[in-house]
Amino acid sequence: MNSLNQYIIDKSKELNIDICGFADSLPLGNLQDYLIYREKSNIKTEFEENDIDKRINPKLTMPNCRSIIVVGLSYNVDYAEKPDYILKGKLSKSTYGIDYHKVLKQKIEELIQEIKKVVEFEYKYFVDTGPLIDRELAKKAGVGYYGKNSSIINDEYGSFVFLGYILTNLDLEFGKEAPNKCGDCDLCLRACPTGALEGPYRFNPKKCISYLTQTKDDIPISLREKMGIKIYGCDTCQLVCPKNKDIKKSNHKEFIPEITRGYMDIEELLSISNREFNKKYGDMAGSWRGKNILKRNAIIVLGNMKKEENIYLLIPMLKDSNPMIREYAEWAIVNIFFNNCIH
């Protein structure tokens, strides 16, 4: 292995970065047709870079890019408190603790400083905000393979991993793609609540609960009902994955849910001010869309709980200044009444 590669790997370990690999800067040409298909099929999300060429060609982001350092942090913290869910909604592991963008960004900046000690180089780095497809870079770097749920699975840490990458003009040795190890298993496909996993490696993000809890677009009624009591994100397809059993747990204390305990109080979420929300929850990844989106999700949770005694929480929402909140509150009340009439 190239001595600079080894130096970067050693330093990443010292900095408590769990995963580190290296990819070339050639275009991700094998994805072009698929990205065009997603666009034509209207399953591209509003969070993605619109320019397909930028999504697959590193040199359109950094013209002198020669190599890409891919890093990852496990967020699979050993935490299993089970609250009573009477008036609480679930959070996915991805938003348990401090916003991973901040945590991983700092790790990448520290790694860059370590590399600068031995070589001058040019770089650009991204954590979930860059135009390139980070999962494809991770696959190319050999740090993981695609599961049938389209998550990247690492042999040591499983799929609960945050990814980031550094575009560089360094001459590095590149990793080899890891072989796929899913075999005949299709547990994730069968477990997905909304059918977002339309087949092996065929993921429709617009049906995914993780996406639905973040979008500002209208959520179809048929999908609202499948969101259950999830306030932000969804871990279902990863929790059933055998590759996430008996793996190395995360030692990053930043991802322990000290404030939320893995859930949010619905009553609080419906009444808290923007200022109070930002003060208490502003450091978690799920806060990036603002309070109103999570408030909407809490209303959907109440609608899905179908308990008549919760209607008192929804009635004030019918007069909310935000038309989105009013609309979802109306749906939730109708859903509760309809359920109780049937039974």
UniProtKB/TrEMBL annotation:
The EC category is oxidoreductase
InterPro entries cross-referenced by the UniProt entry: 4Fe4S_Fe-S-bd, 4Fe4S_Fe_S_CS, ARM-like, ARM-type_fold, QueG, QueG_DUF1730
Work out whether the entry's keyword set contains Hydrolase. Answer: no
Domain named 4Fe-4S ferredoxin-type: residues: 172-202
Q: Indicate yes or no for the key word Iron-sulfur.
A: yes
For this UniProt record, the keywords arranged alphabetically read as follows: 4Fe-4S, Cytoplasm, Iron, Iron-sulfur, Metal-binding, Oxidoreductase, Queuosine biosynthesis, tRNA processing
Gene3D superfamilies according to UniProt: 3.30.70.20, Leucine-rich Repeat Variant
Give the superkingdom in one word. Bacteria
Q: What is its EC number?
A: 1.17.99.6
Record GO terms (molecular function) = epoxyqueuosine reductase activity
Q: What is this protein called?
A: tRNA epoxyqueuosine(34) reductase QueG
